[in-house]
């Protein structure tokens, strides 16, 4: 492989790394990969923190390995290379009546990244996590290709799903696609006046896809107000897609000042009529609403941003209320805040999803945010919840390890697969996830 010095950044742009990067064009490049060239792999770097980074080391960019290898229309099983983007699969297959079973908030996520993070989507309450729809994975372990599945090398399979890329290089995978009605989606939007009502509506929703936007600046009786979106796929005329836009430069700090955010959130909340409404959208506009704004992370300025994302058990909803209270009174939140109902189901030892309520809030990278986020993390730990490592840039290792009950099983499998630590990333080192102490 050829290596080129580059600077690589997580999507939050707070953490970056100087690395030697290789971009293989074909799978045969791995057949000549020497032991000294083994390095962690990454995709489109949509993880917000340092999960894809390897400062002062080597990394393998998998994005050119994006071929569709085989599709069985009888079973819905699709085999693809690791660099294939979920948004591209959605664009190609939805008109044919198929969708990836789980879609995260960005279509730029790759198959390899979706497996390494065991991503979840707006249908976790009915479909579970991405890993539950993975049939098999072709993994490069110790210089050799190995096929793993729930029945073949099951423990290694569980360590790979949500395993942060530490068990080997994900080369390709077979996944089960789900039937859909077409490439449009009917979305019902309704205002929700407060936190308790929001949880009740999420609990009782019968929609296939649900997600809530939260006004994280609202206080008092309005705490937790927002907009609930419920979606079902459909067929018919596709509405005109909105043109993509681009953020050409880093926004000034006042662009997301507390006053600006409060005003935006107020207007965004009121854009939905009192009686609610139903819209027909292109399917990608619903699943990947921010993808049409290229480089939207520049809205947070050159200092970047952090995202706090947690999930807490159902009976720990008061902890989530306390988090929203602290966020609202801090004046630090951006307009990007999401509430979801998570169902049962995750496949990997280090998978984030668990049954409960998930909250995600973005914060500009300021000293005040760096004080608030650890407090929110502490509340999560005390509630028996978890932090999502795909979004994390600030957590502490001891606390994270305690959040994942199968952590030691994961670490044992990782040490078998990568005993020399060639696949360690900045996140693994920061959180000391492969430490035996």
TrEMBL record:
GO molecular function: FAD binding; oxidoreductase activity, acting on the CH-OH group of donors, oxygen as acceptor
Domain FAD-binding PCMH-type span(s) in chain numbering: 14-180
Keywords of this entry: FAD, Flavoprotein
Keyword DNA-binding assigned: no
Domain of life: Bacteria
Protein name, entry field: FAD-linked oxidase
Source organism per UniProt: Falsihalocynthiibacter arcticus
């Amino acid at each position: 492989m050829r290596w080129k010095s580059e600077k690589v950044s997580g999507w939050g742009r707070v953490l970056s790394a100087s690395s030697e990067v290789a971009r293989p064009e074909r799978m045969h490049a791995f057949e000549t990969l020497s032991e000294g060239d083994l390095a962690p792999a990454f995709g489109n770097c949509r993880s917000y923190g340092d999960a894809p980074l390897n400062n002062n080391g080597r990394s393998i960019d998998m994005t050119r390995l994006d071929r569709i290898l085989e599709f069985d229309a009888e079973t819905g099983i699709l085999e693809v290379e690791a660099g294939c983007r979920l948004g591209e699969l959605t664009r190609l297959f939805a008109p044919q009546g198929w969708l990836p079973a789980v879609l995260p908030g960005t279509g730029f996520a790759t198959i390899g990244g979706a497996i390494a993070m065991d991503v979840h989507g707006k249908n976790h309450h009915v479909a579970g996590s991405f890993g539950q729809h993975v049939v098999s994975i072709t993994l490069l372990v110790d210089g050799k290709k190995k096929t793993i599945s729930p029945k073949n090398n099951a423990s290694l399979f569980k360590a790979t799903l949500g395993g942060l890329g530490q068990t080997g290089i994900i080369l390709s995978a077979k996944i089960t696609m789900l039937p859909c009605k077409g490439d449009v989606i009917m979305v019902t939007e309704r205002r929700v006046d407060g936190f308790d009502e929001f949880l009740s509506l999420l609990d009782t929703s019968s929609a296939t896809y649900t997600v809530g936007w939260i006004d994280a600046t609202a206080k008092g009786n309005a705490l937790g107000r927002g907009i609930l979106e419920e979606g079902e796929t459909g067929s018919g005329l596709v509405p005109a897609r909105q043109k993509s836009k681009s953020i050409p430069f880093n926004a000034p700090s006042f662009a997301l000042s507390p006053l600006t955010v409060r005003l935006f959130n107020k207007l965004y909340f009121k854009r939905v009529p009192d009686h609610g409404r139903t819209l027909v959208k292109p399917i990608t506009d619903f699943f990947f609403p921010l993808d049409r704004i290229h480089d939207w992370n520049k809205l947070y300025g050159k200092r970047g941003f952090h995202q706090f994302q947690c999930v807490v058990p159902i009976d720990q909803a008061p902890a989530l209320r306390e988090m929203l209270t602290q966020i609202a009174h801090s004046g630090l939140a951006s307009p990007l805040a999401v509430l979801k109902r998570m169902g049962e189901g995750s496949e990997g030892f280090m998978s984030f999803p668990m049954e409960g309520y998930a909250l995600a809030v973005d914060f500009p990278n300021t000293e005040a945010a760096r004080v608030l986020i650890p407090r929110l993390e502490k509340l999560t730990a005390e509630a028996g919840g978890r932090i999502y490592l795909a979004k994390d840039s600030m957590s502490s290792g001891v606390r994270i390890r305690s959040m994942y009950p199968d952590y030691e099983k994961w670490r044992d499998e990782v040490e078998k697969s990568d005993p020399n630590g060639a696949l360690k990333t900045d996140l693994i080192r920061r959180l000391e996830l492969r430490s035996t102490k």
